[in-house]
Amino acid sequence: MGEALYLDANATEPLRPEARDAALGAFDVTGNPSSVHADGRAARRVLEDARDGLGARFGVRPGDVVLTAGGTEANALAVAGLGRGRRVLAGATEHAAVLAATVPDTERVPVRPDGTADLDALAALLVGGEPTLVCLMAANNETGVLHPLADAAALCRAHGALLHVDAVQAAGRVPLDPGLADSMALSGHKLGGPAGAGALLLRPGLHLPALVAGGGQERGRRGGTEPLPAIVGFAAAAEAARPEIAERLAALRDRLEAGLLAAAPEAVIVGAGAPRLPNTSCILLPGVPAEAQVIALDLAGVRVSAGAACSSGKVARSHVLAAMGLGAAAGCAIRVSLPWNAREDAPERFVGAWSAMRARLSRRAA
Amino acid sequence: MRILVAMSGGVDSSAVAGLLHEGGHEVVGATLQLYDHGAATAKRGACCAGQDIHDARRVADRLGIPHYVLDREERFRDAVVRDFADAYARGETPIPCVRCNQTVKFHDLVELARGLGCDALATGHYVRRVDGPRGPELRRAADPARDQSYFLFATTPDQLAFSRFPLGDFPDKAAVRAEAARLGLPVSEKPDSQDICFVPSGRYHDVVARFRPDAAEPGEIAHLDGRVLGRHAGVARYTVGQGRGLGAASRDGGGEPLYVAALDAGRRRVVVGPRAALPRVEIVAGEVNWLRPPPAGPFPCEVKLRAREAPQPAVAEWDAAAALLRVRPVAPAVAAPGQACVLYEGERVLGGGFIRRGAGAVPVIDTAGTAA
Asked: Residue B65: closest CA among chain A residues belongs to which residue?
């Protein structure tokens, strides 16, 4: 079988060496950043250097970077804090981190068949003019499809609505403009840092009540002692994860998709017609359950996903693909997401394993 | 061999995975998520997966084998739970473990295993698969107390040929636990599972009522002779042969004990009669699965009509035209429609079907109270 082929970067990116070095260094910082003494001040300096780095990297003031334990918390903080007293609208293909933070009957902004937000529908939902928070992800975790954020932001502004953007998958892979949004969620491990740190980037001057008040850290917006290794690892990973570098992945991804389609004319690349992340490919093999595809590939040493991972480990039906109108076929798609360190032969190795899987499973499904 | 092991998280299937792994096979573990555990136990915040899935995963970790959780909630609800409720609403007593084995387990998992390039599917069932002169045979387990062959009668010859049951030769459960302990599996002391898996509360009629409210509607309890003796709170609470839950109707005017003789779902009526009125001379079964070519004409065998009883001598006949199995136990027997009617020849399972409501669903009795 040889070395495993890791193609599940959208679940978590391999740790970048820069992030590893930074995190290891921070393990030896003893002080609590809130302490008055010299060791506390030293820890504080490490923390604020990381925050400055994140602010510079994403083009926001350091004071508008609220550090959290990760992307899920950053999204929950935004929905709870900015959604307070406002009607909340969430994109139909949002991640559970956003959807689960909203009330169960939250109105959804539908997507077009290509997975991009239906802005006409959004405009219609906003006509009432009541105070509203709109939640739209920058890039979808399953398909990589990018929403037209600039247009969505203009619509929100015109109707006086706030816009929260879950940029967990987009950060580090495509250029981002936090200025379009009132808040933007980031995750450290999705761009090659350690899990355990994330951030909410805020529009300057925006008031955000805390979800966890605790000791008043993060200017009263997020309590709890800051995990320095995760945070400095996050900052170092963000610095290293540059969209220009990620463009290398687009060539690999395109080669992978071309190889697949040549081998299997029945396969469909979901969202191929829309702007997408450079590293993500959602591959639909009609009639073959995604669960069997993922297991067969895993047994062949290829790590991919289907749907969003549930903590129980089961492969659940994808609400993203269902929202794109794929019907029962939504259960037949897998996600391939190339990591930052993907090797040049990844497309060919994947197409080989995928073709063998298809030959065995398609025959049974027929 | 690459073998897919259906791991429930219990000691039996865990031991199977461990033994096959130890035997040098490439073991792939799979655990079926059949229902929302949190919802079934009505515990707020309980994980949908439940402890059993966690246990199965920990056993797989311990063995160092790949393990997958298969979401079969929809399939299980449609193929097993709905069928369970529908059967009760028809006045039958369903046997959901057979339906589950028939669909979710042996049909679907054999398909999956083959798709994954496995050479066999192994489970923790207590049965034996023996290679006979004319292909694989299904036999009773070495431990009569644990034998599960009754629940596997519907396994098709093709599925049987692909399946392995490593526990069939174990003398008893203690020996299985000892093996699990020897292999260091964290479930060796785990208690046996009880009752119907998707009704951990035991209040199965609540589940039935959710799918088929009609099965929970009250009605009359009537004697075979037509006298109305009382009321009941839904036919789903009764099974043929049952003596409990009849209230004042359980004794005919304070005299002879009465038992459920039939369930007349159409009229929502529970029909009761004296013990002697219950046995049937001929039992008819449908949806028959044969694990040997069906003999022509009547043939002697043993028949098992409920899970907790020993097989009884009988004469059976395959009515090929009607696709029905007709069985005459040597001593007339009580048979609850919906349960399995399984034929044995000694240790071997010949085939079986689901007990049908006979033409005379309500037995005709003479004045002496014996079945005609």
From this structure: A299
Average pLDDT for B29-34: 94
Q: Which of B69, B114, B116 sits opposite A312 (nearest CB)?
A: B69
E strand intervals along A189-244: 198-202
B47 touches chain A (CB under 8 A): yes
- CA–CA distance, A266 with A284 (Å, rounded to integer): 9
Fold of B212-277: SH3 type barrels. (2.30.30)
State whether A316 and B71 contact (CB < 8 Å). yes
Please say if B100 is a catalytic residue: yes
Of B70, B114, B116, the CB nearest to A299: B116
Asked whether residue B372 carries a pLDDT value surpassing 90, the answer given is no
Task: Give residue-wise pLDDT tens across range A271-327.
Answer: 999 999 999 999 999 999 999 999 999 999 999 999 655 444 555 678 898 899 888
State which residues form the domain around A78: 17-240
Spell out the domain ranges in chain B: 2-182, 212-277, 283-355
**What is the H or E stretch that residue A292 is in?**
helix A290-299
Burial class (CB in 10 A: 0-12, 13-18, 19+), A212: middle
Residues A85 and A217 occupy one common structural domain: yes
Quick one: tokens of B82? 């709905």
Work out the number of other CB atoms within 10 angstroms of the CB of residue B186.
14
Q: Strand A87-91 relative to strand A107-109: parallel, antiparallel, unpaired?
A: parallel
Report CA dihedral (B226, B227, B233, B236) to the nearest 10 degrees: -30
Q: Chain B residues with CB inside 8 Å of A306's CB?
A: none
Q: How does pLDDT run along chain A (366 residues), one tens digit per residue? A: 578 999 999 999 999 999 999 999 999 999 999 999 999 999 999 999 999 999 999 999 999 999 999 999 999 999 999 999 999 999 999 999 999 888 888 899 999 999 999 999 999 999 988 999 999 999 999 999 999 999 999 999 999 999 999 999 999 999 999 999 999 999 999 999 999 999 999 999 899 999 999 999 999 999 999 999 999 999 999 999 999 888 899 999 999 999 999 999 999 999 999 999 999 999 999 999 999 999 999 999 999 999 655 444 555 678 898 899 888 888 899 999 999 999 999 999 999 999 999 999 987 655
Give the tokens for residue A363: 């025959």
- Same-domain check for residues A323 and A197: no
Residues A223 and A258 in one domain: no
CB A310 within 8 A of CB A100: no
**Which of chain A's residues have a Cβ under 8 Å away from the Cβ of B66?**
298-299
Q: Are residues A164 and A67 in the same domain?
A: yes
8 Å CB contact of A316 and B48: no
Count how many domains chain A has. 2
Binding residues of B: 6-13, 32, 124
What are the respective helix, strand and coil percentages of chain A, to the nearest 5? Answer: 40, 15, 40
Q: Does the CB of B53 have a partner CB in chain A at under 8 Å? A: yes
Boundary of a domain, candidates A220, A240, A260: A240
CATH hierarchy code of domain B2-182: 3.40.50.620
Q: For B114, which of A291, A314, A364 is closest by C-beta distance?
A: A364
Could you tell me how many CB contacts below 8 A there are between chain A and chain B?
49
CB B146 within 8 A of CB B96: no
| Whether A230 and A174 share a structural domain | yes
Q: Which residues of B belong to the annotated binding site for ATP?
A: 6-13, 32, 124
Superfamily of domain covering B283-355:
Translation factors (2.40.30.10)
The answer to whether residue B118 is catalytic is no
- pTM of this prediction? 0.89
Same domain, A116 and A247: no
Pair A41, A163 in one domain: yes
